Amino acid sequence: MQSYRALRGQGLLFLVLLWFLWFLTVSAGTLVSPVLPLIEDEFAVGHARATALVSLISLGSAAATFVFGFLASVAGYKRSILVAFLVSAMLFLLVPRAGGFFHLALLFLMIGVANGIYYPCSIPVITEHYHYTVWGKTLAIHDSAAAISVF
After folding, report:
1. Cβ–Cβ < 8 Å for 18, 140
2. What is the residue range of 113's domain?
3. Is 123 in contact with 4 (CB distance < 8 Å)?
4. CB-based contacts of 144, cutoff 8 Å, min separation 6
5. Is the four-CA dihedral 141, 147, 150, 151 of positive or negative sign?
6. pLDDT tens digits for 75-109?
7. Is residue 43 part of a domain?
8. Helix, strand, or coil here: 46?
9. CA distance 151 to 129
10. How far apart are the C-alpha atoms of 89 and 76, rounded to whole Å?
């Protein structure tokens, strides 16, 4: 396998792809907060129940991060990232079809799990594809996606 020694050409393009995937993963959790008033109105729930959706995404993400740190090496890191994003996309397509608040909460928990799979899989992919001399740069650029997503 090719180990990129510099952040140029294909090495930079691959890093931009990973950065964008991390940006989407973090955005999935942060985009829920602005629509909470709409969820409150649609499902006739209070602030506490609606805010629980954000907590469920975080809980699912944290649980998946801990568990998949161990399991992803068996399934393969790239395969795990691909499956996580396909599952996440399918779950997002099901959100408008949620029949009730419980179904929506369950979907958000599963979205959190799907999104939590990415990070423990991305670090090994980065360290596998880039030469150790550029790990600091690549990891710093990759992690900037979370801060930009929140912004």
Report:
1. no
2. 20-150
3. no
4. 19
5. negative
6. 889 999 999 999 999 999 999 998 899 999 999 99
7. yes
8. coil
9. 29
10. 20
